[in-house]
Design brief:
Layout lengths: L1 H5 L2 E5 L6 H9 L4 E2 L6 H4 L1 H4 L4 E2 L1 H12 L11 H9 L3 E2 L2 H9 L13 E5 L7 H7 L4 E6 L2 H11 L6 H21 L4 E5 H6 L1 H12 L14 H7 L4 H5 L15 H4 L2 H11 L2 H5 L10 H24 L4 H23 L1 H14 L1
Parallel strand pairs: 1-5, 1-6, 2-5, 6-7
Antiparallel strand pairs: 3-4
Helix pairs in contact: 5-6, 9-10, 10-16, 10-18, 16-18, 19-20
């Protein structure tokens, strides 16, 4: 228990398709770090277990079973017998954070490990929960990665992650950026901000700075993470790696910078620039347009309204009883994602279901 308690936590946050997976892979390639793929169980199960300080065998069994229901938990490919055994060893006085750390400790990384000095979690959804995560893991640290909002829209549109409405995606970019910078002002020593463009332009310099921030040694070999190509192919369902995480197969490069200049229409750029507004300048992205006609303003209203409603729904869910909130947070992403694809892209839903069947 003491060993788990003394290992600090790192959270990688930011908008989806901003480089969070790349950062997660770089850190997981470090011999002293464990950082699995994303699964939001820490926040999802907090309402039910977060304040528990004494754990019976029944409590730990229930926690183990609840883990199995979490979206994407199966992608960790844990040895469940070992996990269950290790959890039951924590019977008695213990904190929620140590119970969670016991789950991370059995993650079978693709990279060789030595003395573990840092646990990590990459999760775009955690961007709006950093305050809660600090309560669970005091002294934890956050690396926030930002990507040009126009390239972010291109990437999200290309993989059908969300409705391809420029103002909707841009408004979410605004919400995430404002939220993380607001929390960082309260506790600046806990946050490290990096732009995707700076990371891929100067990977070694960027990684050195992040290692210093997290308190681990810089290991240049982690930049060779892509040499695990065959293992990545076995880790992800067939076709999924190439479509969503093809960057893991190559050295870090700048090929994904500025795609918006070729792939977006003038109309889309105007809507994105208007929605993000002066926040773009503050974060270091130069807008093309600064003056907008009434038509552009009207065109952005539907997307911005949907984003506002989604943000409000997240706040309302947080106020629900813990059992209801846990069910929504655990099952909601899968249900909403399936519903979205049924309506807007049934072909992709069929392809993904086939990938998952072949994967299993």
């Amino acid at each position: 228990m003491d060993k788990l308690n003394n290992i600090p936590f790192l959270f990688i946050v930011g908008r989806p398709r901003s480089g969070t997976t790349l950062l997660r892979t770089l850190f997981d390639a470090h011999c002293n770090v464990i950082i699995p793929p994303e699964c939001q169980f820490v926040v999802n199960l907090y309402g039910k277990y977060g304040k528990k300080t004494h754990w019976s065998k029944a409590d730990l069994e229930h926690f183990f079973q609840d883990l199995q229901t979490q979206w994407r938990f199966d992608t960790w490919k844990l040895d469940n017998k070992l996990l269950r055994h290790n959890l039951l060893e924590l019977e008695g006085e213990n904190l929620y954070r140590n119970i969670c750390k016991a789950v991370y400790a059995v993650y079978p990384s693709l990279y060789p490990k030595e003395n573990i000095l840092l646990f990590g979690d990459k999760n775009p959804g955690y961007t709006i929960y950093t305050n809660r995560l600090l309560k669970i893991f005091p002294n934890s640290k956050f690396i926030h990665i930002t990507r040009d909002y126009r390239d972010n829209f291109v990437s999200i549109k290309n993989v059908d992650f969300e409705l391809p409405i420029p103002s909707l995606v841009a408004q979410k970019w605004v919400y995430f950026s404002r939220k993380i910078h607001q929390e960082a002002r309260k506790n600046p020593e806990a946050y490290f901000h990096i732009r995707y463009e700076d990371l891929v332009n100067k990977p070694e310099e960027s990684l050195k700075a992040m290692c210093a921030f997290t308190g681990i040694s810089f290991q240049p070999d982690v930049l060779n993470f892509h040499e695990k190509t065959n293992d990545f192919v076995n880790l992800y369902p067939k076709g999924l790696l190439q479509k969503y995480h093809s960057s893991l197969l190559n050295q870090i490069n700048t090929s994904r910078i500025g795609l918006w200049k070729k792939e977006l229409t003038d109309k889309e750029v105007r809507q994105l620039d208007y929605t993000v507004g002066s926040l773009a300048d503050k974060i270091g992205y130069e807008r093309v347009y600064h003056d907008f006609g009434f038509a552009v303003v009207l065109q952005t209203i539907p997307g911005r309204t949907i984003a506002a409603l989604l943000y409000l729904a997240t706040q309302l869910v947080d106020k629900l009883p813990s059992s209801i909130r846990m069910n929504i947070l655990s099952k909601g992403p899968r249900v909403l994602g399936t519903a979205f694809l049924k309506v807007f892209n049934p072909k992709k839903l069929r392809e993904m279901n086939k990938m998952l069947v072949d994967y299993k």
